[in-house]
């Protein structure tokens, strides 16, 4: 049996890994390629896994998709889950290329070390996605990233900057994401600022998650020799807790909101303005509004930016739609799926993960929970009442900053 190629996608929370992976899979499908996928989500909710498995080309039933959720794939337990995931994918005789999307807090070192020793696999690419907007806004177009990292090292602090810098150091490709929102001069400054961290890595600007799939899985393999010294120096610290925003006792946490009620559109709008802080690094999940109760909406927030995307229709909203011309058998299948969901409103429900500093996460979750409809408002919705909705209408992909 020939060795299986491996591509690893790294990047801090909200850098665009899932968008990039979806793009890669679509291109691969168009070209007749068939990569298998492992998606890692530090939250138990596994939103990224749901988004990827909703694509036609990969899912568990085809034997080419596995999720590792509830932990970082770089942790000791995560490595054990990775081993099991690889065994599962290798049961499929067609597996010849595996793409791994890591969680935002994962470190490349344990994975690089794992594949350096693991027979039967060839590590091709360790790719780090870097949010160019984050570097522009928080690190003066990237010029302050290295000085801040050096300051952390001198103080014995392991901060976010350490993780981002080390992700870049272990890469053989660095992708600057979200560059469609930056000027050419800003992109150039950012690229020049991070280049000294890894002079061997190619730095590529990307827009809207676009990357030519032909740049992946090429003949040349990952050069382990270049990171031998790094592995020796960092091995004992990569899974240490991160020191966040100069605040003592802060940890990176992932907490989940589960409710069957919809969000009040106006209250959610106000909460985004009033309660999103730099300590809330990422939130994502699925929810619904009473003002557009047929639509299943995807919430995706990174730092101060919130995106809403229509992912489909709730089954409860379409099952009685006569224009769909469902057969009795099809209608029963839909009803069984609706009944399998624990919700008072058919299959409608809200499931969100919030990731960040523990106190800011708790404050944001408390604010979000106040956005759910009250019992009186639910009755208003049932009776056809209207709700103020400041979010853009009639757009498939919505953006709010």
Automatic annotation (TrEMBL):
CobW C-terminal domain sequence ranges: 252-372
Gene3D superfamilies to which the protein is assigned, alphabetical: P-loop containing nucleotide triphosphate hydrolases
Pfam families in the cross-refs: cobW, CobW_C
InterPro entries reported for this sequence: CobW-like_C, CobW/HypB/UreG_nucleotide-bd, P-loop_NTPase, Zn_Chap_cDPG_Synth
Function: Zinc chaperone that directly transfers zinc cofactor to target proteins, thereby activating them. Zinc is transferred from the CXCC motif in the GTPase domain to the zinc binding site in target proteins in a process requiring GTP hydrolysis.
PANTHER family, alphabetized: COBW DOMAIN-CONTAINING PROTEIN DDB_G0274527, ZINC-REGULATED GTPASE METALLOPROTEIN ACTIVATOR 1
Name this protein carries in UniProt: Cobalamin biosynthesis protein CobW
Organism: Veronia nyctiphanis
């Amino acid at each position: 049996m020939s060795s299986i190629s491996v591509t690893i996608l790294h990047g801090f929370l909200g850098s665009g890994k899932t968008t990039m992976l979806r793009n890669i899979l679509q291109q691969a499908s168009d070209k007749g390629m068939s990569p298998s996928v492992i998606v890692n989500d530090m939250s138990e909710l596994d939103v990224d896994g749901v988004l990827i498995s909703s694509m036609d080309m990969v899912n568990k039933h085809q034997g080419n998709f596995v999720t590792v959720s509830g932990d970082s794939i770089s942790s000791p337990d995560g490595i054990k889950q990775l081993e099991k995931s690889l065994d599962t994918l290798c049961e499929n005789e067609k597996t010849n290329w595996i793409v791994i999307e890591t969680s935002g807090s994962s470190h490349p070192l344990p994975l690089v070390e794992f594949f350096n020793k693991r027979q039967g696999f060839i590590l091709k690419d360790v790719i780090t996605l870097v949010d160019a907007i984050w570097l522009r806004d928080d690190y003066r177009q990237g010029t302050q990233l290295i000085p801040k990292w050096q300051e952390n090292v001198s103080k014995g602090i392991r901060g976010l900057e350490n993780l981002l810098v080390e992700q870049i150091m272990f890469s053989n490709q660095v992708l600057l994401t979200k560059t469609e929102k930056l000027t050419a001069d800003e992109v150039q400054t950012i690229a020049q600022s991070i280049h000294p961290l890894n002079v061997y890595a190619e730095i590529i600007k990307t827009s809207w998650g676009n990357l030519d799939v032909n740049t992946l899985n090429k003949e040349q393999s990952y050069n382990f020799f270049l990171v031998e010294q790094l592995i020796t120096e960092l091995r004992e610290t990569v899974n240490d807790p991160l020191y966040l925003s100069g605040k003592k006792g802060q940890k990176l946490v992932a907490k989940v909101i589960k409710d069957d009620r919809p969000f009040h559109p106006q209250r959610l709008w106000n909460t985004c303005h009033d309660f999103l802080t730099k300590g809330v690094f990422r939130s994502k999940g699925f929810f619904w509004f009473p003002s557009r109760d047929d639509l299943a909406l995807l919430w995706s927030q990174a730092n101060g930016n919130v995106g809403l995307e229509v992912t489909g229709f709730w089954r409860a909203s379409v099952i009685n739609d006569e224009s769909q011309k469902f057969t009795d058998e099809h209608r029963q299948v839909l009803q069984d799926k609706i009944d399998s969901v624990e919700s008072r409103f058919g299959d409608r429900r809200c499931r969100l993960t919030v990731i960040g500093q523990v106190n800011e996460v708790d404050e944001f979750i408390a604010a979000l929970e106040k956005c759910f409809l009250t019992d009186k408002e639910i009755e208003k919705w049932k009776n056809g009442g209207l709700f103020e909705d400041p979010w853009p209408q009639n757009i498939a992909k919505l953006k709010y900053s």
